[in-house]
Amino acid sequence: HGFEGANGQDYLALYGVTSETVNNEGLPVDEVLDLLRKTRASQLLVLLDACRDGMDLQNRTTLVKSATFSQQWFSKNTGGIKVLFATQPGGVSWEDDKLQHGVFTHFLLRGLEGKAKDSTGAITFNSLANYLDQAVSDWGWENNKLQTPYGVSSDNVPLVLVPNTTQVVVEPKVVAPVVTNEQRLPFEPEMVSIPAGSFMMGSPESEAGRDSDEGPQHRVTVKAFQMAKYETTFAEYDAFCEATGRAKPDDRGWGRGNRPVINVTWDDAVAYTKWLSQQTGKDYRLPTEAQWEYAARAGSTSRYFFGDDANRLGDYAWYDGNSNSKTHPVGQKQPNAWGLYDVHGNVWEWTQDRWHDNYNGAPTDGSAWESGNSSRRILRGGSWSSNDGNCRTAYRGNDEHSSSSSYWGFRVACVLG
């Protein structure tokens, strides 16, 4: 089980340890990381069938308090660690008297025995994570006890756990390394690697403030990609304008530099991604609506990535309750569990998809929904002028592709080769 000690440190602890005794009887997560790094292994795999804070022994469940557990695993890591958690942040980890082990471990063993093979016959970290996500989630739907495993990788190097039956050697290959400050061009955005996985897109009918266009809730599987850590800034967009001779958008007198760019149309945002791709040789695009919501949720299933309490929104977002009716420099509020800033508030963010007024017939593979005749494109996340309900993760906005506003900006995604 996981506990947060009085000093704010995360601990792994045996049954019977309490929050009062964990500082003396628990094992600090940082010590585990230090021991792993000292092995100097190029790849490290942690299978963590444990949750953090909040136990219900009578009902045999363990509750995850927050995403802090996963954040601490990577806060000081330099690469090479992959972790599979029994459940996502904010989720529940179940046991079942009919199974010999907990639900996660039961399907983990089945996966390693062969259920998690990929198309080549090998079992990799990604194929195991995908199998667990589907198998445990299916068990949850059948038993009305939802649980979704949560995989996190600090790099994009494939890890083969069981080679394929033909014994073909799978050479490790970096698919898309995280861009460092030294590698980036001056105008190139800082990117965050988003792991592959699946999630329930949209909001449940029980969610407070839900609109009909947020349903039906449906499972979407998303391939790994990269997402900009921050909303595109004036500094980044102005470099594009100077290089191409385009007129710079108005900042309403609020300032440029590190503030999110505003008064840009969907067409402007697409033009920027094409120019950025040409300059860098990478495949920059607007995120699809599914990619945006998956990355914004960062494993959460609540109204906001940090939970359901709108009173906490000011710690994570600039919205009508604290913005003083203007944008603010990016990155000043707390990020989500995957390190993305301002996904709630500051500016609405253009996505690739055409507008549909519900999810009936929506793609389930994370791709953009381009069918239909609508000239309106989808905006997500809320802005400096939005109320707390419109900043919810599932809330959807839309407008004409050629329209611009001081409420609207965007952030970019990068497709992995």
Structure description:
This protein is an alpha+beta fold. Helix content is 21%, strand content 18%. Strands 12-15-21-16 form a four-stranded antiparallel β-sheet. Strands 19-18-17-20 form a four-stranded mixed β-sheet.
Q: Major beta sheet, specifics?
A: 4 strands, antiparallel
DSSP summary: helix tally: 8
What are the low-pLDDT stretches, counting only 5+ consecutive residues below 50?
54-68, 166-182
Shape: globular
Distance between the termini: 38 Å
Q: What portion of residues belong to β-strands?
A: 15-25%
Please compute the radius of gyration using only Cα atoms.
Answer: 22 Å
- Secondary-structure element order, N to C: EEHEHEEEHEEHEHEEEEEEHHEHEEEEE
Average pLDDT taken over every residue:
84
Judged by helices, strands and strand pairing, the structural class is alpha+beta
What helical percentage do the residues reach?
Answer: 10-25%
Order of the strands making up the biggest sheet: 12-15-21-16
Number of DSSP strand runs: 21
